[in-house]
Amino acid sequence: MTVRVGVIGTGMMGQDHIRRISRVLAGGAVTAVSDADADRAARVAAGLPGARVHPAGQELITDSEVDAVVVTSWGPAHEEYVLAAIAAGKPVFCEKPLATTAEACQRIIKAEQGAGRRMVQVGFMRRYDAACRALRAAVAAGEIGTPLLMHCAHRNAAVPPYGFTTEMMISDSAVHEIDLVRWLFGEEIAAVTILRPRRSSKGAAGLHDPLVVILETAGGILVDVELFVNATYGYDIRGEVVGEHGTVALAGGGPAVLRHDGRRSDAVPADWRERFGAAFDAELQDWLTAVAAGSCTGPGSWDGLAATVIAQAGHEALRTGRRTPVTLPGRPGLYSAAGGPS
Length: 342
Description:
This protein has helices at residues 12-24, 38-46, 57-62, 78-87, 102-115, 130-140, 166-185, 272-293, 301-320; strands at residues 3-8, 28-34, 52-54, 68-71, 92-94, 120-122, 147-155, 189-195, 211-217, 222-228, 236-243, 246-249, 258-260, 263-265, 324-325. Mean pLDDT is 93; it is low at 338-342. By secondary structure, the protein is α/β, with parallel strands linked by helices. The protein has 9 helices and 15 strands. It is 37% helix and 22% strand. 44% of the residues are buried.
């Protein structure tokens, strides 16, 4: 079965997903696109034989030639399109965030419960990254004993000099570590603290870069996340779990570490597409395969809600300078099984 996919949002992420569905993955074809920028949508559609261009996402969702929907529009529009896809009975892959507020995520969950089945996958691609999966497997196997601490770094070479706020460092960047920690340890996050180191001169005025985020899991694991979004030298993602009798860390950005003439070096990816390209491929392939089978197996609406609630707690911690508890609602039975690859 070929899943006919409609893509809402034809910016950088949308075009990247269109490329992989059309040229890299099996079982999918892009049959319709939509974007607030009609000219850009038309240019993208011109490279997709037979694809339709819709002036609005709602029209794309109701198109009879669309079996499933990918949402890569800007975050505030996600709720509208995800709810419309659920109402139309069409599976939807939504890039993070699921929605920008906890209340909006709750409305999506209520709609999905009303449908009686999971229909939404959220784009937390690190669950599909080979290094992250190896890290999780080592922790689950008990190779380092009971996990006690985790050290993370999330460094971007740069972010746009306009429009990127300090709050976005939490909701757009640290959200990946938030989901990773929940998935890695199988525990919810109970509290968030934000620390403000000396500010780098490389960021735009008003952006406090870097930040340190402290996550406390319900079981007592402490996770520190360094967020540095204008690190200048590349895209550098790090993670090390410290256990009772050992540690395990993510592999570096390159396929090999060179040791030569008293030095050690490895590659630093230029951006997120280079570092996580294979993970994006794997997550979209998982989604297409699940849609064809009539199921939904990846991170879902509950994971999207949890990430948004935790990010909002991070915003409060940033504002107040105090440790902020995280309060999640009761987890509905529809989401009793953890999402994501096993």
